[in-house]
Design goal:
By secondary structure, the protein is mainly beta. It is built from four helices and 48 strands.
């Protein structure tokens, strides 16, 4: 025998020994698989089952390596000597789980196949964006996409025929947020199973195991605005399906207390926070059903600062604080500026109603009225108590809040210098209680800002009786030289400095009348203000508080050079 034959025999013998070793290892592995661990031991179809504590031998092919659930082949997702992962097949029933390897088989345990069942939905009525809980059993331990070694999910929640992604998934509980496109309909759980083809390879078409159905009612979303305010606050529910008209049992409740209904339409409900209301849920009671739509916080008006605390009429008084609400919210329109219904919302100074200039939730500005008196500054808000059916009103009252004390000051003049001066000269008036200079001009009544929101033709800025003539007396703090207003250089509570006007010497007049010389006459300081009309609307004609300093003479000095009138083009007298 030559060397080549000997080498060939050695190689053949070595190959045979290797094959015998592999076969013996597989046989030992198959026998050892009987002590393996199966997890979980109870699950619905489509669940990934992990088998550990091998050895299981090597994976050769889908035909040589098999796992069956009570005789039904399962899809093998992973196989090594110590770990096998398989998916419970669609047609599996409870029974033994067997591993088959190169025609050797062993039973590794018993598997209980569960069926998904929904017991309840919490809540059974919800709106898009809400979280619902599906309570039952047999859902499996997870929703599928996070299962190792699989890139697609096998479990889903169906709502009205649409698949919805779950945020939390347990065997007996599923939580999910309803998407914006969700609709009312049956809720069911679908558990998909990826089974092997007859030759053991992947994959047969997906088959689903479907749970029972439980109906979910999708409610139209309701927006509530605002969600906080003092009693009397107007709040509006915007949505759909409220019904065209309010029926007898239809209510809006704040923490169980009926709100005053001002308007009820199919897409909108306007209500007011009632007297003695407390913070709590807003519940819509309509068509025999109660539904919590929001939470309302009832605030108490809290003034913190009053400035100034003493001043003459016409002064802008400022109240600072929080939770004053809105001024014109007593009406039935959805927006406050549409009707300017202020109800009994007001500020009183010494028992006299002030003229409201600005009303914000944290600041209120009012003009001290002409008839104001020293005393308490009080803030009042309209509030109502509805009838049991929510209609207005069993009781209508105001909630009073004390702001502070105010002292009305009467201006007085002690002196003025000079008593006579030429044009543009400065005159100083001294005294007390002049207040502050008002830089705002009222070219028309205060209600013009309200009328600006409406299409009206009766808003006049000019004098309606004299076309083209601008109204006079647009100021409310002024100094008059014989009836003509002067330019104010400075104005403090104790001193006013003004310029001598020119028009008194040049002449003043209007169509049909002219006064060519008003040089001598009284020097007066005056402040103007209004009063609220008896019906609560604004306002009486402007009224004046006038203080006379004494006589003043405007001297004919400071006039333009008379040469200007005869030689008004000096550049024309040149030889160039």
């Amino acid at each position: 025998m030559n060397c080549l034959d000997m080498l060939t025999k050695k190689r053949t013998l070595s190959l045979l020994l290797s094959l015998l070793t592999l076969v013996s290892e597989d046989l030992v592995s198959a026998r050892s698989a009987q002590g393996s661990t199966l997890s979980p031991r109870q699950a619905p179809p489509g669940t990934v089952v992990v088998i550990t504590d091998g050895p299981f031998g090597l994976f050769h092919s889908p035909q040589a390596n098999r796992v069956t659930f009570n005789g039904v082949p399962a899809l093998i997702q992973y196989w090594d000597a110590n770990r096998i992962e398989v998916r419970v097949p669609h047609g599996a029933t409870s029974g033994p789980v067997q591993i088959c390897h190169d025609k050797e088989s062993s039973t590794i345990g018993t598997m209980t196949i569960t069926q998904p069942a929904i017991h309840a939905l919490e809540p059974a009525e919800a709106e898009p964006g809400e979280t619902i809980r599906i309570i039952g059993k047999g859902f499996g331990e997870n929703s599928g996409p996070k299962v190792p070694n699989i890139i697609f999910g096998t479990k889903e929640v169906m709502i009205g025929g649409v698949s919805v992604q779950a945020q939390h998934w347990e065997d007996e509980l599923i939580e999910l947020t309803l998407p914006a496109n969700a609709t009312s309909g049956p809720v069911s759980i679908r558990l998909g199973s990826f089974d092997p083809l007859p030759d053991g390879s992947c994959c047969a078409p997906t088959q689903y195991l479907v749970s029972n159905e439980v109906h979910l009612s999708l409610l139209s979303p309701v927006r509530v605005d605002p969600l906080a305010g003092p009693v009397g606050t107007k709040f509006v529910l915007f949505g759909q399906g409220f019904a065209a008209n309010k029926e007898g049992d239809d209510l809006v409740l704040i923490n169980g207390k009926p709100a005053t209904i001002a308007r009820w339409e199919d897409t909108m409900i306007v209500a007011h926070v009632p007297l003695e209301a407390e913070s709590g849920p807003i519940v819509l009671q309509s068509q025999g059903r109660k539904r919590t739509v929001a939470t309302f916080t009832v605030h108490t008006s809290k003034p913190t600062l009053l400035t100034p605390v003493s001043a003459p009429i016409g002064t802008l008084l400022t109240i600072r604080g929080e939770h004053f609400g809105s001024y014109s919210e007593s009406g039935a329109t959805p927006y406050n500026f549409l009707d300017f219904n202020t109800g009994e919302n007001r500020v009183e100074i010494g028992g006299v109603r002030a003229v409201v200039y600005r009303w914000n939730d944290d600041r209120i500005d009012v003009w001290v009225p002409f008839s104001a008196k020293s005393g308490k500054v009080m803030l009042y808000r309209t509030a109502t108590e509805p009838h049991p059916d929510g209609s207005c009103c069993a009781t209508q009252d105001v909630v009073a809040t004390e702001v502070g004390d105010f002292t009305l000051v009467t201006p007085s003049i002690t002196s003025y210098e000079p008593k006579a001066a030429g044009l543009d000269a400065s005159v100083t008036i001294k005294g007390t209680g002049f207040g502050s200079f008002l830089k705002t001009a009222e070219h028309a009544h205060l209600g013009i800002n309200q009328k600006a929101y409406k299409r009206r033709e009766d808003v006049e800025i000019n004098d309606p009786h004299a076309e083209g003539m601008v109204l006079s007396n647009v100021s409310r703090t002024e100094v008059l030289f014989n009836g003509t207003a002067a330019v104010v250089e400075s104005w403090t509570d104790t001193e006013i400095v003004v310029q001598v006007p020119r028009r008194n010497l040049y002449g003043i007049g209007k169509r049909g009348e002219f006064f060519d010389n008003l040089a001598t006459g009284p020097l007066m300081v005056r402040r103007g203000s209004w009063d609220v009309l008896p019906d609560g609307t604004c306002c009486t004609p402007k009224q004046w508080l006038t203080m006379e300093a004494g006589p003043f003479t405007i001297e004919a000095t400071g006039l333009p050079d008379t040469d200007y009138w005869t030689n008004n083009r000096p550049d024309a007298n040149t030889n160039q």
